[in-house]
């Protein structure tokens, strides 16, 4: 008999035995409350009494699962986030076994877990604020973290990337719940790397007290479903914009490893204009600027979790590196308002290049207990960011044309900026009984900001660049914040209440190397907080929150040396700034129906020593600098709604209306301002035939009150068409950002001495094609 025929004969003889040795364990996973099937429940088979995984799978859309194994005695464990784990011990498997329905019980929800949500809508509200799921908003495809925040209710993003929440620019931005240097450049973080964003409008004592507006916590993807999963995406847009990346994770009952990579090459053009009139000097200034820039970034995020007994040891890491280039030209003309005589004219060209790199590393230990409401978490993390910038400036004085023969001045500037943040933190939750729990924690934060700025001018006599030590500046800022907090929480059938307090000891040092001036501050503050929820019935609840917070001046605000990128409009800091103190109050109502929800919030904020930028004009030059004003107040009304109008149409959005008042009479009577503002963001999705989805996102922000004027209104609309293929594993989309080309930024400042207005427009209408594949 030939070898092949012998092997075939042997296989046919043994195949019944082989088939009989492979047995099937099957069943159905359902919700214990409503008997609905549960998708993606993890089912694992263990040796009886052991921790070694034999095999595992997950339930399908009908809740069904099936596992293949050999005969023996096993333990079956079922896991699903939001539900208590289920274990079936000493299961004898001698034949195919159908376990029937396995019911999972939803974990009891605590005060901060009471949410209003819909599975088809990319955000939900809770007692603290908003939870955003970026992937469910098509407008975020191919974008960055800044694009997500632009589409988030209550949040405004200015043209320079700064964030404000309910009209306040003082926000505490966290990465995975931790302070990080990476938050200094949010445009470095791709949208595809973000799992969730938590917006906490009125944070309790668990969070840092710093931030007038609240807390924005960015949760990066790490992978949780058992097995091997991943995906890749590619976005290509007008002006050869490119964004591509991939991610991967492998999870077992013993460990989880994950990694992601993103490359972004983004180009843009913009224009800016400034008009200023100085009344007493009869000066009229007109400036026109144009800019071209390109940003190339590599972003990596990676980590691992190891489970042993009731312990979890995790490592989370982020690394990025990038290169920016920018070319801008500024045309300036100053005339006499009465005679129209030319007083000053020049062109300033700036060719700028910048390299960035940074990392964030965190080691986290978590201890679980038999009581699932008891938790211990200890973490340590360190982050670093370095920016090295080179500016080569050509100046063409007494002309409006930037030609080689008109070149009569050259400057060069080198900026080496390093940021370091280290945090050690421990948090413990202890349930006293079923209704009462205690939370406590310790945290120490160490930050250092080192900015070394060298400024050179071309000397004709020496035919070389010579440093101007009057402008060069080396500034070192360091602070330490040591904190402890305690929270008492009690839950009941009708009332949930949480009372907390946080103590923070702050030490700040600011050193000017050029003058050897050292500015030190030490202060201790207490920050109480209250959160309460009253459940009217299953659908309706009322909430009340109060917190006292602080907004410490940043390193840039404290640095007194000027930024003279534009020699007629200079920005400088103020080393004598003091922190502002905030009292914030919020009352709200939440209603959650089967296919709709509405949250209504009334909020009030009072600020002592409010930090705001003021503009002064001296000798034809405007100086913008921060100052402590007397007080600031804001109160308003906010609506956040979500609804599935039909099977093919859903809508979500928000409207915020608020009155603001700034009292800067300690600086001057003209620094008193008040006014009404409102903004709205609306997202609507249409399910079309042939598995197409159309999404429209509209945004409007009314003029906003500043100490000396207003920001102008802003509005825009984005549109995205999505097609799903291959059982939803492949998604193709076409997006048009700012369809009507209306997104721009501007405002004015006014005093008894001058009026100044600026407008900025950039190429915001762009088209993007994206492809995403998940496995």
Automatic annotation (TrEMBL):
User: Which Gene3D superfamilies does the entry link to?
Assistant: Carboxypeptidase-like, regulatory domain, TonB-dependent receptor, beta-barrel domain, TonB-dependent receptor, plug domain
Q: What residue stretch is flagged as signal peptide? A: 1-21
Q: Does the keyword Signal apply?
A: yes
Domain (TonB-dependent receptor plug) ranges: 131-215
Taxonomic superkingdom: Bacteria
GO CC term, one of those recorded: cell outer membrane
- Give the main location: membrane
Tell me the membrane topology, using the record's own terms: Multi-pass membrane protein
**Subcellular location as annotated:** Cell outer membrane
Q: Does the keyword Signal apply?
A: yes
The alphabetized UniProt keywords are:
Cell outer membrane, Membrane, Receptor, Signal, Transmembrane, Transmembrane beta strand, Transport
Which InterPro entries does the protein's record reference? Beta-barrel_TonB_sf (IPR036942), CarboxyPept-like_regulatory (IPR008969), OMP_b-brl_3 (IPR041700), Plug_dom (IPR012910), Plug_dom_sf (IPR037066), TonB-dep_rcpt-like (IPR039426)
- Outer membrane protein beta-barrel domain: from which residue to which, for each copy? 367-773
As for family, the record states: Belongs to the TonB-dependent receptor family.
Its protein name is: Outer membrane receptor protein
Q: Which organism is it from?
A: Echinicola vietnamensis (strain DSM 17526 / LMG 23754 / KMM 6221)
Recite the lineage of the species.
Bacteria, Pseudomonadati, Bacteroidota, Cytophagia, Cytophagales
């Amino acid at each position: 008999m030939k070898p092949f025929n012998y092997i075939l004969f042997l296989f046919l003889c043994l195949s019944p035995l082989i088939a009989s040795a492979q047995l099937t364990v099957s069943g159905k996973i359902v919700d214990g409350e409503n008997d609905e099937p549960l998708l993606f429940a993890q089912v694992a088979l263990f040796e009886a009494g052991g921790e070694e995984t034999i095999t595992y799978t997950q339930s399908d859309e009908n809740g069904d699962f099936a596992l293949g194994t050999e005969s023996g005695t096993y333990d079956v464990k079922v896991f699903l986030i939001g539900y208590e784990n289920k274990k079936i011990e000493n299961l004898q498997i001698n034949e195919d076994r159908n376990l029937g329905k396995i019911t999972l019980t939803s974990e009891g929800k605590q005060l901060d877990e009471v949410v209003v949500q819909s599975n088809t809508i990319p955000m939900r509200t809770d007692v603290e604020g908003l939870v955003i799921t970026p992937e469910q908003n098509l407008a975020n495809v191919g974008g960055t973290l800044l694009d997500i925040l632009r589409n988030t209710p209550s949040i405004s993003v200015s043209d320079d990337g700064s964030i404000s929440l309910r009209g306040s620019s003082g926000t505490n931005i966290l990465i995975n719940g931790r302070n990080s240097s990476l938050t200094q450049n949010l445009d470095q973080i791709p949208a595809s790397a973000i799992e969730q964003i938590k917006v906490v409008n009125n944070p309790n004592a668990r969070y840092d007290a710093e931030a007038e507006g609240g807390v924005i916590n960015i949760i990066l993807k790490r992978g949780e479903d058992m097995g091997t999963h991943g995906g890749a995406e590619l976005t290509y847009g007008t002006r050869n914009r490119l964004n591509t990346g991939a991610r991967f994770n492998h999870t077992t009952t013993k460990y989880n490893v994950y990694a992601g990579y993103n490359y972004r090459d983004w180009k843009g053009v913009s224009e800016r204009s400034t008009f200023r009139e100085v009344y007493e000097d009869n000066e009229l200034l007109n400036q026109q600027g144009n800019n071209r820039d390109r940003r190339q970034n590599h972003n990596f995020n990676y980590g691992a979790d190891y489970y042993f007994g009731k312990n979890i040891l995790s490592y989370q890491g982020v690394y990025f590196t990038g290169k920016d280039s920018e070319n801008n030209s500024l045309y300036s003309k100053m005339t006499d308002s009465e005679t129209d005589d030319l007083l000053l004219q020049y062109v300033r060209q700036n060719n700028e290049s910048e390299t960035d790199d940074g990392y964030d590393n965190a080691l986290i230990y978590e201890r679980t207990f038999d009581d699932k409401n008891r938790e211990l978490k200890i973490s340590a993390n360190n982050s670093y960011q370095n920016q090295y910038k080179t500016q080569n400036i050509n100046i063409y004085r007494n002309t409006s044309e930037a030609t080689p023969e008109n070149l009569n001045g050259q400057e060069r500037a080198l900026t080496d900026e390093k940021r370091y943040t280290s945090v050690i933190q421990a948090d413990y939750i202890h349930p006293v009984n079923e209704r009462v729990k205690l939370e406590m924690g310790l945290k120490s934060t160490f930050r250092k900001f080192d900015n070394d700025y060298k400024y050179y001018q071309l000397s004709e006599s020496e035919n070389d660049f010579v440093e101007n030590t009057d402008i060069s500046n080396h500034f070192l800022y360091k602070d330490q914040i040591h904190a402890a907090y305690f929270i008492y929480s009690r839950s009941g059938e009708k009332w949930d209440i949480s009372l907390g307090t946080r103590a923070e000891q702050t030490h700040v040092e600011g050193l000017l190397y050029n003058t050897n001036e050292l500015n030190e501050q030490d202060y201790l503050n207490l920050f109480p907080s209250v959160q309460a929820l009253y459940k009217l019935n299953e659908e309706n609840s009322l909430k009340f929150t109060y917190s006292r917070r602080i907004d410490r001046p940043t390193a840039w605000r404290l640095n007194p040396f000027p930024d003279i990128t534009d020699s007629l409009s200079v920005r400088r800091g103020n080393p004598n700034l003091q922190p502002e103190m905030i009292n914030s109050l919020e009352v709200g109502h939440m209603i959650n129906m089967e296919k709709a929800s509405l949250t209504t919030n009334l909020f009030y904020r009072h600020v002592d020593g409010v930090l705001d930028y003021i503009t002064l004009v001296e000798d034809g030059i405007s100086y913008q600098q921060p100052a402590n004003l007397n007080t600031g107040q804001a109160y308003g009304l906010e609506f956040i709604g979500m609804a599935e109008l039909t099977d093919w149409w859903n809508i979500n959005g928000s409207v915020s209306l608020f009155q603001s008042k700034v009292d800067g009479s300690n600086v001057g009577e003209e620094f008193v301002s008040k006014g009404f503002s409102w903004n709205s963001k609306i997202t609507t999705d249409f399910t079309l035939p042939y598995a197409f989805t159309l999404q429209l996102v509209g945004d409007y922000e009314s003029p906003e009150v500043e100490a000396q004027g207003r920001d102008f209104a802003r509005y825009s609309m984005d549109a995205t068409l999505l097609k799903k293929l291959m059982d939803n594993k492949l998604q193709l989309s076409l997006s048009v950002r700012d369809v009507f080309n209306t997104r721009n930024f501007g405002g004015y400042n006014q005093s008894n001495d001058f009026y100044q207005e600026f407008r900025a427009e950039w190429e915001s209408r762009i088209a993007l094609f994206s492809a995403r594949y998940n496995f």
